[in-house]
Design brief:
The chain is mainly α. The protein has two domains: 2-135, no CATH class; 141-273, no CATH class. The protein has helices at 2-13, 17-47, 51-64, 103-118, 126-135, 141-158, 163-185, 190-210, 217-228, 231-242, 246-273, and strands at 69-75, 78-85, 88-95. Strand 1 (69-75) and strand 2 (78-85) form a beta hairpin.
Length: 275
């Protein structure tokens, strides 16, 4: 109570300069902490977490750090947080763009959030751990390219393609992963990136067949189509809507629909040209 009265006197009469310094230092610390927690929430959303999980994580961490009340509003492209501390409320917002699904990184972020809440991770260590997760590659890019090729091969064989169809699909799948890396660094929007990858994949499938290679274009293409299907986005959209986050669910659903249409048009265009 004494601290509150002195803080109140400082706020309205600008009395004791020493108390002014203490309050400002604590307010700055609260703002810096909220920035780091927003970074964690942003990383979770980028890696594929549903909206409800992001909001719950931010709320639990800030309450564990002394906030008496936390208001969080999250959609697929934005996070807004107001945290109420004894020194006063702090509000910050964050624009979200460029989702890159990574379940391993999401698991590490969840573990970090639990460590912060339980006190096993000190506030001054949050930034370092976030940077380790954000900049670390789980498997390395060359191995990821190989996985894309293997997945394309398996999907092509699963849907009735021959071994040659699967091998061609694997080669195209690895090429698409390289393209996705380049398009991501150029910050090409997701719909345009999916459309370009689908067009390139379709041209390879139908072009090789047109040149006389004994392959089935549809069996080659299906292995690559499965790589680009927005399955996680559609799943999260349904989960968000079922948990009451209707706005976020509808936004994710519309995004998934646009990606699906871009995928269909991208593969249909080469098919129509080579008829």
């Amino acid at each position: 109570m004494i601290l509150f009265e002195k803080r109140k006197k400082l706020r309205y009469t600008y009395g004791n300069s020493s108390w002014e310094e203490i309050v400002l230092d604590q307010s700055t610390a609260n703002s810096a902490l909220l920035t780091e927690i927003l970074d964690l929430g942003e990383q979770m959303l980028l890696r594929g977490a549903e909206v409800g999980r992001v909001e719950d994580t931010i709320t639990r961490i800030l309450r564990a750090q002394g906030a008496s009340r936390v208001d969080v509003f999250t959609i697929t492209s934005s996070i807004v947080v107001t945290a109420h501390w004894p020194e006063g409320p702090v509000t910050q917002t964050r624009r979200i763009s460029g989702i890159q699904y990574d379940m391993t990184a999401l698991t590490r972020l969840n573990a970090l959030s639990r460590d912060i809440c339980s006190g096993r991770c000190a506030p001054d260590s949050i930034r370092r751990k976030l940077d380790e997760i954000a900049h670390g590659e789980t498997y390395g890019f060359p191995l990821t390219v190989l996985f894309y090729g293997l997945a394309s091969l398996v999907f092509s064989l699963f849907f009735g393609g021959s071994l040659l169809d699967g091998m061609i699909s694997a080669g195209v799948g690895m090429l698409l992963r390289l393209m996705m890396r380049v398009l991501d660094r150029l910050q090409v929007p997701g719909v345009a990136s999916t459309l370009l990858c689908a067009v390139i994949g379709g041209f390879f499938a139908h072009g090789l067949s047109h040149l006389g290679v004994p392959c089935a274009p549809d069996k080659v293409a299906i292995g690559n189509i499965m790589l680009l299907v927005p399955g996680i986005a559609m799943t999260n959209a349904i989960r968000d809507m079922f948990t009451g986050d209707t706005i976020s669910g509808l936004l994710r659903f519309c995004e998934s629909l646009l990606l699906s249409l871009a995928l269909a048009w991208g593969f249909a265009l080469p098919s129509a040209l080579f008829l």
